[in-house]
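Q: Structure tokens for this one, please.
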Amino acid sequence: MKAKIDLLIILAVIVFASFAPMKIGIFERSADVGNPKIAGSSNYDSKTKTYTLKGSGYNIWFERDEFQYLFKKTKGNFTVTADFELQGTGKDPHRKVGWMIRESLDDDASHLSAVVHGDGLTVLQWRVAKGEKMRDPEDEIFSKEKASYTVQIEKKAAIYTMRVAPKGGKLQEVGSHEMKNLSDEIFVGLYICSHNPAVLEEAKVGNVKIVQN
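A: Here is the predicted structure, written as tokens:
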């Protein structure tokens, strides 16, 4: 009888493990937001401590987004930092990678993101509320730094501050923005968008840190 019970316990553990979400490094899981034409992916190399993100998507703009997202839920104040490198020459100068703070996985969700484009353009941008259009330049703060390597977002209550640095350089503040519509418990993660629905782009992301303040 005991052997049968032990077997049932083992089978239950196996079934539970098969349905449990697979963590990717320090993140809970990855997903394509907005159903892009080409499926994306996110992987972690524990030896090099590097994340590889592959993603498609028309853009992260207007009233809806398409991109690959690697994320976890978090609460309270925090600081996130990472080094970003888009791979290859790319198909579109506005392919983008960076950090994103997002209220949900809906394609029209409110969010704030630190963006490094393929052509070096670096901005802090946001969607004020779910379903609203992002506006240019009203919903952007532009960095003087081109081709940023290290990107950081610090959250203090509803205030989000972006800092960037070139490779080997010191972090410099880009600007801050207040996001009153984002709740205290939110998604935080890395993302990539090809800015071309027919193209899959790739980025390497290293030195990833999420620190609760």
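A few notes: The chain has one helix and 16 strands. The radius of gyration is 18 Å.
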